[in-house]
Amino acid sequence: MKENIDPYEICFGLNRRTDEQSLGSFIRCFASPAVLETLIPRMTDAEITEAVDFLSKIIGKHLTEKEYHTLFLSRKG
After folding, report:
1. How far is CA 8 from CA 15, 18, 29, 39, 60, in A?
2. Using CA atoms, how far apart are residues 51 and 38, in angstroms rounded to an integer?
3. So where are the chain's domains?
4. pLDDT digits (tens, 9 = 90+) for 2-32
5. Residues 61, 39: contact at Cβ < 8 Å?
6. How would you write the chain as a 3-class SS string?
7. With a threshold of 0.85, does the pTM exceed it?
8. What is the C-alpha separation between 3 and 24, in angstroms, rounded?
9. CA-CA distance, 65 to 53, in Å (whole number)?
């Protein structure tokens, strides 16, 4: 998977590879400090809960406990 694609090249629905690359680029853009510092204070309590619940569900479904600790929490063990 290509690490970074230009945000203007983000496109979904063409094929799996493009979707994966676009999702990675979209999430990297979304997770930038400037976006998060602007977006989070504008979110409702319900939106914050929905986002945490959705992301936690995806992480729990696709990462082992070891992967969760080493990849997500950046810890060993």
Report:
1. 17, 13, 11, 20, 31
2. 16
3. 1-42, 43-77
4. 567 888 999 999 999 999 999 999 999 999 9
5. no
6. CCCCCCHHHCCCCCCHHHHHHHHHHHHHHHCCHHHHHHHHHHCCHHHHHHHHHHHHHHHHHHCCHHHHHHHHCCCCC
7. no
8. 8
9. 17
